[in-house]
Amino acid sequence: MKKIIIVALVAVFFVECTTVPITGRKRIKPVNDENVLPASFAQYKGFLEKNKLSEDKKATQQIKEIGAKISKAVDHFMRNNGMQKEADSYRWEFNLVEDKTVNAWALPGGKVVFYTGILPICDNEDGIAAVMGHEVAHAFAKHGQERMRQGQMQAIGGIAVAIGTSGKSEDTQKIWNTVYGIGSNVGMLAYSREHEAEADKLGLVFMIMAGYNGEEAAEVWVRMSKKAKGKKVPQILSTHPSNESRIKALKDYLPEAKRLAAQFNAQEK
User: Fold this and answer.
1) Distances in Å between the alpha carbon of 168 and those of 6, 172, 182, 183, 224?
2) Mean pLDDT along residues 211-220
């Protein structure tokens, strides 16, 4: 057990922390962009080649226009707050894929996909902007790169367990590996919930900066809740906050989001 503690302490000692702009959340330093973005862009390209783009020209144009407006607002913020190098690294792209799944996602570097299945939940232009702001926020806050770094730390923890239980009975090793596996998996779920909540806040700021109605963000989740028809996953074991907590958090944060959006939009261009 002493070996486990020593390895873990060494790992923690060398972890560098940074701060997420706007929210101020402390995080472990994300994996460097140069080690992530080429693969991210290639993965996005491969996905588009294997999946059917929507033939709805109006909806596709709407996704692209809203994405462009929100990413422009984000670019404006970065270039006015000492993040020029990061702003230059993004290759913003927005596509609508023909798929009934209620989903949208973003890859590092600004690659965003909407599925046609989420459009009824969005319901209107402001609803699309709310989801778009959320996905753009994931890219802005480098949540993907942060998860990669966490994965590296999780791997180190696994090595620590292996070292600490070496020479022990097989039953003892199984117990410790099981405990670590459950703990680390739940930890990663909690980490994802933190990202989701942060993306909600950042996305709300970004959509308002781009000229959209921030009140619609909570309404998207009201509609999502109705779509779920009462089926709930326990929040502690979900990668997303519950719809109820999400709606409340968005409504509570709206005044602050409006204040920040006005402040950032007032910055000299």
Assistant:
1) 18, 6, 20, 21, 49
2) 97
- Give the tens place of pLDDT for each residue, 73-118: 999 999 999 999 999 999 999 999 999 989 999 989 999 999 999 9
**Beta strands in the chain, from DSSP E residues, in sequence order:** 17-19, 26-28, 93-97, 104-107, 111-115
What are the tens digits of pLDDT across the range 17-46? 889 999 999 887 767 888 888 888 998 999
247-256 own/partner pairs: CB under 8 Å, 24+ apart: 247/218, 247/221, 247/222, 249/197, 249/200, 249/201, 250/200, 250/204, 250/217, 250/218, 250/221, 251/218, 253/200, 253/201, 253/204, 254/204, 254/214, 254/215, 254/217, 254/218
Question: pTM value?
Answer: 0.79
Count of domains observed in the chain: 1
Helix (H, G, I), strand (E, B) or coil at 38: helix
Bridge partner list, 97? 53, 115
* Structural domain boundaries enclosing 211: 2-265
Q: Quick one: tokens of 151?
A: 């994965």
What type of residue is 85?
K
Provide the pLDDT for residue 152.
56
Q: Specify the length of the chain in residues.
A: 269
Kindly tell me the burial class for residue 177, based on how many C-beta atoms sit within 10 Å of its own C-beta (0-12, 13-18, 19 or more).
middle
